[in-house]
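okkk here we go again. third time trying to get the nicotinamide-adenine-dinucleotide bound version out, last two times i messed up the smiles copy paste (missing a bracket lol). double checked this time i swear
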Amino acid sequence: MAGLKAGIIGAGGIIGYHINGYIKAGVDVVAISDPQIERAELQAKKFRIPKVFSSYEEMLKKITEIEVVSVCIPNKIHASVSINCLKSGKNVFCEKPPALNANETIKMVKAAKDSGRILMFDFNNRARPESQALMGYIKNGTIGKINSAQALWIRRCGIPGFGGWFTQKTFSGGGPVIDLLHMIDLSLYFMRFPEPKWVLAQTFNDFSTNPEFKGPWGILDGEGGKMDVETSAHAFIKFQDDQVLFARNSWAEMNKREEVSVTFQGTKSGGMLKRLFQRDGIDETALDECELYTQENGHPVNRKIIVEPDEKMGRERAVINFVNTVCKKEEPFSLPEEAVILMKIIDAIYLSAEKGVPVEIA
Ligand SMILES: NC(=O)c1ccc[n+]([C@@H]2O[C@H](COP(=O)([O-])OP(=O)(O)OC[C@H]3O[C@@H](n4cnc5c(N)ncnc54)[C@H](O)[C@@H]3O)[C@@H](O)[C@H]2O)c1
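finally!!
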């Protein structure tokens, strides 16, 4: 979008998708901020971004023309930084998870409403061509009501380093449940965000000190290698109008290999999208599939849905959708209130696992 200027907060692993998304949307990325200034400098050089700052507050103060910001920082500060940006009049595209928990997410949504600015979260899997193709069938009535869905993001060897912020609950909010929440989110998106009622869940922490289960991505091991989050989780979620969702998330578990999928059963048709990895965490080794299961002319029919491949899993397309939403050129792929429902479920998964009982969601 000609004339729109963006600033990026956080120069870590995810930044490239945001910058490329903005470039493709025609937005000028004018500055990057990161307290580790050398990381900001590295990315600024790579993408020819004119300014770097060690503080995002200074960035926003010095470059007043910035209208959109990407929040690409550890989960612990998603809420506080996004709220400050919204209060400063910026439109915010915040990385997932929305925050550490539902309460923080509620505060972010309120700040967006109060400021009149756009707040969107990077649920990039909704932006995948497969997801949008299935959504087309959901919207045109082919699927009917989705009674049940199964959400999987299961890695076999995918612990993102030992002792960095990802593996410490105070900084991340948890392990694969919150980190790999995408398929739970995508199932809810397909089910049109029904009100959750009950959650029953169990988490495990096997392999949490075993370096053989470290993934090929993530961040450098931290001092002491602290790891106090789960390595896998299994959950069952029941909704107010009797829909159900089964979810499995893992960084380290004895699975055949990494699988990222949603399967659903509707009252008229079913569907599935799946990404299988040859190597855990390496998108370039992934194989995507998308299918529709219907009954036609008295016969069961399985249709293969062919879409333009998107190895980047919608990460750039999600940024473009954010820009188009700000510019009122496209409907948003996600609404802030949906993030509150998602985070209530995540909170309930952890609470149920901790207490050993089903948890009711108010
Ligand atoms: N959507 C996806 O597919 C996807 C993939 C990976 C990560 N993420 C999310 O992106 C976020 C960042 O992850 P990452 O892998 O880039 O992490 P990272 O650790 O590689 O980078 C985080 C960066 O934030 C910087 N930072 C910390 N405090 C800051 C502040 N106040 N202002 C500016 N910068 C600050 C750190 O110095 C670091 O450089 C996380 O929330 C993560 O969950 C999303």
